[in-house]
């Protein structure tokens, strides 16, 4: 490069951090350029102009080139990609700009792929993809065939031109089958991307939970000790069973005997017979006994949370104290009296120590047939995992969580079942049957138990009954079971049974079905009321209704009794209408027919269909129903709760941690907390009812949206598209449109929500998650927002944001809970422009459709304020930041909390007075800073400047108004306008107006380099310029004072500012102003003044004003305020500038000390009045409290002496701002100044 | 005020209730709700068919369908149609026909009443089942909450050195 340094136009050879844009500044892939295969062989088919941006010379130089073609070179270690600039110079592309990577990803993959295949033509698809995913490991998306599909023409061309590539089998097959593949792969990709995405966001937590949940309880079938699709008992036994034969097929399980999975699914809850009748088996002796704690329990449950076994006190006591009979008897009594115990399972049979699931060696092997456990290390050899010669497998891992499932040596393993004989479970209600069948069962068992089928049949029948019974609503009961089960309401069951018989047998059905057809209409009408009204109204409906009415009139009191009434009306009929043949009741046949029809109709509706019909929006798609209902069973919960209580009790009594953990493992406890959360979420609609009226939605209030719009519209450019991905009532777009049209921007809008709002301005009823990137314009035109649903722990918000990020919008404005993942932590980070975590505090939201006690829309009070934040695509960050600074959006965050409270633009606009407050704040801040090192001062300066910035909008607005006024000599107008603003709702418009003016003025003034600075400067210039004349007028005192200081130049002033930090500064400011004006005039400031001289000359009169005004921007708002205030408040009349100045100046000089106060005061006073007038009062209230209170005291006192001080006040107020301006200019020197002046003050 | 999101957001005008001729007063009834325009009406229809109609966190069985002339009893008579009444003597040829019609009407009424009864039973059963489920789950919640509320769980967690997320 060195050699070419002297050339005027250095031709870059390589470029990094590059990206390409088309003529519309849209990022675009270079692959749209024509490719050059050989030198000089370029097809001219570029439709668009494409420009390369990037840096070259090791990042020293930026380039911007029009490019016309590209080519790649596969011969090196790494593939090279070059683009041809218009000057016919090949530029090598190195590293793309991060945000651009995605756009060129596919072409990069393709080139890499070709490169790899050129090197290894024999490579298989797998090795290729492995290689590529390594290379592209930093990308979110794994490279896949899909990426190649986009560039098939390129690949085939490459294959044609390159012999080595032509040899590649992979490419050959790929090109050959491309058409079919393409679709497939597309879909695949989408699917995986989608599902992965959802899983990541929605279910991560929950899956996690359910995994853990299953980690505590065993989920193996109590019959066959195998896992699979099992059904948990809701009761205390916490067992699980295979519900159907199919589910237990693998282990040949007898199962609960349900006929189909559907039947199982329809059970609301399953409670096994043991739990239902509170008759449990003693795990030691196997006999059934009552476990009902409230009426003579015989067996008691082990207190351990995960243990569902019951014992006779006698049995367990004997086991626990095998040698010590006395202790055993004692324990027995204790247990019988209700004392808690842990069963022998929880101690190793060999070493008597407890379990530790985390230590592999100390994990338990638990016998499923008797209360015996061994540590893994203590497990007898004969209980073996593997099967060898003559060895029977008695132990299995992985069936129980962190435990080994064993059958101890006491139990003989059945060769066929590979488990001990499965006769260990007894259900109480089944007793009779099992007893009846006992003989055959036993026989079969003896015959080596293989005839499992028969055995299972008998058992199945028994179980059948029991389960059926629990599922009373399942109408399909066969006679046997119903009779055995002794169903309560005999009548009903009879009818049901008879019908079900018919249907079951199907043969009889014919007769039944023929009849229905004739009357199908009628019955259907019965089911469907509205259609009934259509068809039968006249004949049947009317009459019935009349009858009803009459009977109602006759016996009005009875009207409420449902069934009674029907009967009555029917009964009444014959008398009233004298219908001879009216059948008061239907014959059995008809009834049966009707019931059949009903059942048919009912069975024609399936749950699947309903679900299909009610497509849940993705934001609601996750339901914890299964977790809550199937996993959190009452039995487990009771056990856990009891165990926790016991464990805690034990610890309190001084037992060891180990004992406590035997009762309640830490996992149980952890799980309880998790369960609580799950239940809370699941029951949320019931726990906090009204909030859920509209599906948990909350809308941002109109006022707040207006504020947001006011703030946001600066960032919007012509032609942008505003996308509200969850538009709620659709206010945002509408307001945005209004605002933007006022400011002369034309944009498009798109609003999505799952519910149609009343106002469907550009609305599409659509689940945001289903919107595809292609459907919206390019990211550079997109601005997205605003208030997504939050979800539990912001899960939904995250989901919505992630989806929005797929579109690469240039701006995202978000109201999301604080715990939402920040956008700068995303894979493709966005930059935060500003964040405002105050403006949406309190009642910023409402619950649509929810009506409170007084029929008023319910507000939602945030306990945690969701911050409002603006995020920019990294591409445009700089631009947006500068806008933010220009309009004072940024300052808040950086300054203290006080500042944060300050507000959106509107407020600023509305309240010039705010400036004061802020000023106060800033100055306070300054104090701390100023005394420290330069750099800090600098910061201080920065802060101040920011303050300015904030103010500047308002101040400018004011200024401008003022200026305008000045120009037109219509101060009153402005003042009146402002009043309006103050009054409140109209503020915004006013603000707009002013802001517009601002702009204009801004333009005029802009002469300095950085936008931000410009503003300040310009403002300051104005003020200065104007002040200057005024100063001149001001006179000697001012001069004198000034001179010493002035000599210092503004620097000093600035310093003064920095130093002035506290209230003092204000005085200083005063002085400074006074003095400052001169120095400025003297010329130090000229540079600054550049833009403004014209203004200065404009009107000396105004100058004074303006100085105020300018200030406004800085300080001078005050003047404006001044006037404004004067006007508004009526306190001050707009005085001729001269007076003001004089007074103002004098004041400062004379009462330097008072000045500071005054300053503070004036500001505060003004503020007060201001606030008083404005509705915004409340917002500011906190500020007022903090800042102003001290001052007001002073101010008032000080004011009095001051006399007509209103003006002064204003000025003073403005001064500080002024000072701040200076600050900007000369951060360094402050110290001395501040020290000098401020010290004195400070001491005071 | 209707509270499904859809309805809340619309200026919906409840025009009147339409009596349900199927039975006594306290069964489901229809109401005529007027929307501003066709588009809104369609939106409401789809909204209600797609999402449960929520009131105070409870889904309610509400259906919406477009109004039809036949739904209103005060609709004008179909042009050209007149209903005539006359007394039939026993020897009138139409007498038997009329009687048959009457019989049929009564039969229909009885059948409808029967179905209505069954339907109500079904509904009640379903409601009970749902209530039971809810109660069950709420019981679970209370149970968990009880040990949370008295601090047992939290203190035990401290014993175990567990870090438990505060809620």
TrEMBL record, chain A:
Limits of the Zinc finger PHD-type domain: 220-276, 281-347, 348-412
The name this protein goes by in its record: Zinc finger PHD-type domain-containing protein
InterPro entries: Cytosine_MeTrfase1_RFD, Mtase_EDM2, NSD_PHD, Znf_PHD
Residue ranges with Basic and acidic residues bias: 884-920, 947-975, 1012-1044
Subcellular location: Nucleus
Biased composition (Polar residues): 1072-1084, 1234-1244
PANTHER family linked to this entry: PHD FINGER-CONTAINING PROTEIN DDB_G0268158
Biased composition, class Basic residues, residue ranges: 976-990
GO CC term (a single one): nucleus
GO molecular function, one term: zinc ion binding
Region (Disordered) location: 884-922, 938-1052, 1072-1101, 1218-1244
Keywords attached to this entry: Metal-binding, Nucleus, Zinc, Zinc-finger
TrEMBL record, chain B:
Chain coiled-coil ranges: 110-137
This protein's UniProt keywords: Coiled coil
Claim: Coiled coil is one of the keywords in the record: yes
Source domain of life: Eukaryota
Protein name stated in the entry: RRM domain-containing protein
Organism: Carya illinoinensis
Lineage: Eukaryota, Viridiplantae, Streptophyta, Embryophyta, Tracheophyta
């Amino acid at each position: 490069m060195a050699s070419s340094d002297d050339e005027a136009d250095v031709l870059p050879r390589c470029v990094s951090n590059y990206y390409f844009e088309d003529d519309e500044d849209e990022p675009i892939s270079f692959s749209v350029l024509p490719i050059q295969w050989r030198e000089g062989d370029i097809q001219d088919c570029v439709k668009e102009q494409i420009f390369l941006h990037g840096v070259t010379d090791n990042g020293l130089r930026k380039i911007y080139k029009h490019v016309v073609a590209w080519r790649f070179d596969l011969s090196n270690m790494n593939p090279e990609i070059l683009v041809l600039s218009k000057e016919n110079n090949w530029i090598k592309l190195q590293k793309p700009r991060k945000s651009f990577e995605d756009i060129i990803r596919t072409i990069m993959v393709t080139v890499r792929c070709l490169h790899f295949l050129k090197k290894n033509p024999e490579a298989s698809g797998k090795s290729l993809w492995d290689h590529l995913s390594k290379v592209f490991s930093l990308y979110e998306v794994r490279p896949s065939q899909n990426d190649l599909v986009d560039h098939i023409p390129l690949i085939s061309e490459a294959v044609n031109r390159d012999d080595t590539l032509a040899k590649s089998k992979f490419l050959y097959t790929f090109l050959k089958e491309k058409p079919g593949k393409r679709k497939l792969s597309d879909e695949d990709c989408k699917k995986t991307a989608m599902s992965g995405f959802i899983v990541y966001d929605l279910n991560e937590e929950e899956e996690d939970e359910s995994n853990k949940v299953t980690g505590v309880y065993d989920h193996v079938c109590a019959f066959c000790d195998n896992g699979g699709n099992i059904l948990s008992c809701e009761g205390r036994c916490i067992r699980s069973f295979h519900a159907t034969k199919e589910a237990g097929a693998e282990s040949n399980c007898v199962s609960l005997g349900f006929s189909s999975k559907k039947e199982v699914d329809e059970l609301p809850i399953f409670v096994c017979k043991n739990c239902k009748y509170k008759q449990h088996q003693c795990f030691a002796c196997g006999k059934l006994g009552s476990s009902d704690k409230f009426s003579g329990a015989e067996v008691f449950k082990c207190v351990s949370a995960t243990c569902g076994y019951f014992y006779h006190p006698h049995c367990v006591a004997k086991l626990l104290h095998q040698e010590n009979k006395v202790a055993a008897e004692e324990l027995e009594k204790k247990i019988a009296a209700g004392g808690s115990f842990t069963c022998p399972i929880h101690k190793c049979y060999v070493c008597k120590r407890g379990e530790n699931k985390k230590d592999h060696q100390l994990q338990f092997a638990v016998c499923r047939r008797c209360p015996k456990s061994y540590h893994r290390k203590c497990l007898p050899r004969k209980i073996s995992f593997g099967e060898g010669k003559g060895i029977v497998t008695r132990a299995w891992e992985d069936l129980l969580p962190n435990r080994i499932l064993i059958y101890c040596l006491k139990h003989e393993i059945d060769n066929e079942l590979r488990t001990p004989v499965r006769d260990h479970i007894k259900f109480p209600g089944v007793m009779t049957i099992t007893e009846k069948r006992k003989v055959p069962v036993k026989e079969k068992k003896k015959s080596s138990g293989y005839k499992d089928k028969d055995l299972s049949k008998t058992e199945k029948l028994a179980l059948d009954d029991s389960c059926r019974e629990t599922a009373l609503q399942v109408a399909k009961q066969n006679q046997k079971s119903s009779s055995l089960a002794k169903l309560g309401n005999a009548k009903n069951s009879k009818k049901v049974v008879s019908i079900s018989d018919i249907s079951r047998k199907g043969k009889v059905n014919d007769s039944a079905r023929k009849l229905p057809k004739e009357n199908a209409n009628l019955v259907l009408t019965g089911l469907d009321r509205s259609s009934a009204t259509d068809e039968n109204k006249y004949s049947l409906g009317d009459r019935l209704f009349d009858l009803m009415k009459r009977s109602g009139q006759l016996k009005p009191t009875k009207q409420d009794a449902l069934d009674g009434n029907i009967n009555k009306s029917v009964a009444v009929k014959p008398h009233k209408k004298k219908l001879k043949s009216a059948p008061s009741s239907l014959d059995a046949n008809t009834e049966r027919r009707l019931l059949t029809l009903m059942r048919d109709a009912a069975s024609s509706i399936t749950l699947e269909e309903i679900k299909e019909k009610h497509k849940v929006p993705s934001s609601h798609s996750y339901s914890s129903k299964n977790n809550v209902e199937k996993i959190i069973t009452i039995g487990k919960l009771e056990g856990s709760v009891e165990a926790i209580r016991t464990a805690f009790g034990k610890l309190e009594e001084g037992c060891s941690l180990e004992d406590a953990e035997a009762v309640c493992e830490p996992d149980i406890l952890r799980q309880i907390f998790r369960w609580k959360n799950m239940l809370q979420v699941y029951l949320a609609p019931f726990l906090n009812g009204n909030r859920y009226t509209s599906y948990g939605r909350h809308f941002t209030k109109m006022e707040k949206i207006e504020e947001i719009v006011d703030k946001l519209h600066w960032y919007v450019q012509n032609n942008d598209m505003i996308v509200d991905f969850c538009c709620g009532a659709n206010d945002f777009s509408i307001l945005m449109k209004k605002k933007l049209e006022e400011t002369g921007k034309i944009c498009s809008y798109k609003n999505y929500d799952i519910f149609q709002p009343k106002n469907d301005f550009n609305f599409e009823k659509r689940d945001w998650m289903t919107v595809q990137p292609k459907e919206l314009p390019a990211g550079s035109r997109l601005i997205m927002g605003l208030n997504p649903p939050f979800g539990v722990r912001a899960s939904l918000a995250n989901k919505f944001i992630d989806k929005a990020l797929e579109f690469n919008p240039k701006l995202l404005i978000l109201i999301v809970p604080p715990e939402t993942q920040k956008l700068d932590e995303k894979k493709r980070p966005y930059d935060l422009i500003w964040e405002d975590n105050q403006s949406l505090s309190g009642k910023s939201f409402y619950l649509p459709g929810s009506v409170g006690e007084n029929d008023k829309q319910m507000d939602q009070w945030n306990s945690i304020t969701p911050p409002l934040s603006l995020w920019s695509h990294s591409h445009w960050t700089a631009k947006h930041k500068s806008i933010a600074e220009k309009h004072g959006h940024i300052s808040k965050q950086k300054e203290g909390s006080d500042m944060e409270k300050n507000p959106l633009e509107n407020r600023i606009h509305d309240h010039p007075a705010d400036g004061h407050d802020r000023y106060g704040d800033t100055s306070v801040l300054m104090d701390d800073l100023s005394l420290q090192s330069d750099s800090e001062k600098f910061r201080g300066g920065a802060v101040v400047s920011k303050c300015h910035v904030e103010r500047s909008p308002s101040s400018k607005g004011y200024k401008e108004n003022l200026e305008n006024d000045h120009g037109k000599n219509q101060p009153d107008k402005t003042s009146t306008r402002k009043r309006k603003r103050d009054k409140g709702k109209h503020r915004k418009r006013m603000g707009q107006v002013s802001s517009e003016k601002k702009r204009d003025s801004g333009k005029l003034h802009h002469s300095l380099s950085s936008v931000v600075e410009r503003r300040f400067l310009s403002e300051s210039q104005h003020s200065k310029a104007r002040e200057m004349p005024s100063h001149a007028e001001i006179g000697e005192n001012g001069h004198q004072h000034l001179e010493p200081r002035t000599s210092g130049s503004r620097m000093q002033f600035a310093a003064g500012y920095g130093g002035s930090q506290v209230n003092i500064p204000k005085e200083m400011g005063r002085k400074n102003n006074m003095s400052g004006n001169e120095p400025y005039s003297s010329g130090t400031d000229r540079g600054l003044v550049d833009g403004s001289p014209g203004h200065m000359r404009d009107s000396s009169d105004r100058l004074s004003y303006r100085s105020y005004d300018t200030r406004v921007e800085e300080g001078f708002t005050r003047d404006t305020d001044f006037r404004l205030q004067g006007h508004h408040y009526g306190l001050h009349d707009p005085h001729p500038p001269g007076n003001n100045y004089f007074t103002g100046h004098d004041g400062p000089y004379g009462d330097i000390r008072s000045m500071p106060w005054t300053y503070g005061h004036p500001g505060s006073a003004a503020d007060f009045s201001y606030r008083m007038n404005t509705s915004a009062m409340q917002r500011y209230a906190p500020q007022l409290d903090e800042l102003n209170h001290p001052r007001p005291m002073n101010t008032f006192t000080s004011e009095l002496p001051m006399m007509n001080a209103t003006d002064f006040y204003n000025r003073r107020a403005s001064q500080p701002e002024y000072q701040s301006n200076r600050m900007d200019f000369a951060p360094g020197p402050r110290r001395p100044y501040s020290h000098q002046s401020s010290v004195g003050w400070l001491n005071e | 005020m209707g509270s499904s999101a859809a309805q809340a957001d619309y200026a919906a005008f409840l025009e009147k209730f339409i009596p349900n001729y199927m039975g006594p007063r306290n069964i489901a009834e229809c109401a005529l709700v007027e929307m501003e325009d066709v588009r809104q009406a369609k939106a409401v229809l789809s909204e209600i068919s797609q999402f449960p109609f929520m009131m105070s966190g409870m889904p309610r069985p509400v259906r919406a369908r477009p109004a039809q002339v036949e739904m209103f009893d005060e609709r004008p008579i179909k042009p050209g149609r007149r209903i005539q009444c006359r007394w039939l003597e026993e020897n009138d040829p139409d007498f038997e026909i009329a009687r048959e019609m009457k019989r049929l009407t009564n039969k229909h009424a009885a059948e409808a009443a029967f179905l209505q009864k069954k339907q109500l039973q079904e509904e009640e059963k379903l409601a009970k089942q749902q209530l039971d489920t809810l109660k069950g789950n709420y019981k679970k919640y209370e149970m968990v909450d009880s040990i949370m509320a008295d601090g047992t769980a939290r203190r035990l967690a401290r014993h175990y050195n567990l870090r438990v997320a505060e809620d």
